[in-house]
Amino acid sequence: MSYKIWSSLSNREKNIIGAMALDGAVTLYYFSHAMALDGEPNLNSLAMGVLVGKTIGLAIILAIILHLIINGHKDTEKADERDGAIEGKANTTAYVVLLLGVVIVMGGVLMGSWFDATFSLNHIINTPFFVFHALVLSITASDFAKHTAQLVFYRQGY
């Protein structure tokens, strides 16, 4: 993103883009390390606990650094009715994406149990490891949808 485009963005838009970048980095960190773990049903819960703790710590540290870079010592902008309306519409978008993700995960588990012997992937799909991470991915997709909707609405001048 060139400096000219970055300087044309409002502080809210910069914070939204920063949040998307942070979410993307933390998601890549988490999933790259989680997929390296043994994904069997008897997954080592200590290893998962350590990974989740590291991921939360990383997210907090990166969020603080990001906030200092984008906002510095400026006072935050007060939200007005337009900001509330944009957030409401973006939350609606996020809700729909999250609902679709949960329905897809539920459908995958149900279909996997119906066609037990037919699909060789069934032993992977119906594990708690897979279902948990599919739901985490749905939450992450929902968050990206919310931020994307906010950017679109701010750019349109909603």
Sum up the structure in keywords.
158 residues; mainly alpha; 6 helices; flat
What is the count of helical runs? 6
Principal-axis shape equals: flat
Helix/sheet category: mainly alpha
Helix content: over 70%
N-to-C series of helices and strands:
HHHHHH
Largest sheet: none
Amino- and carboxy-terminal Cα gap: 23 Å
Give a verbal description of the structure.
The chain is flat and about 55 Å long. By secondary structure, the protein is mainly alpha-helical. The relative contact order is 0.14. The model has no long low-confidence stretch (mean pLDDT about 85). The chain has helices spanning about 5-10, 10-35, 45-70, 80-115, 120-125, 130-155. It starts with a helix and ends with a helix. Helices cover about 80% and strands about 0% of the residues. Helix 2 (about 10-35) packs antiparallel against helix 3, helix 2 runs antiparallel to helix 6 (about 130-155) and helix 4 runs antiparallel to helix 6. It has six helices and no strands.
Fold topology:
Layout: H1 3-8, H2 11-34, H3 45-71, H4 81-114, H5 122-125, H6 128-156
Compose a concise summary of this entry.
The chain has 158 residues and is mainly α.
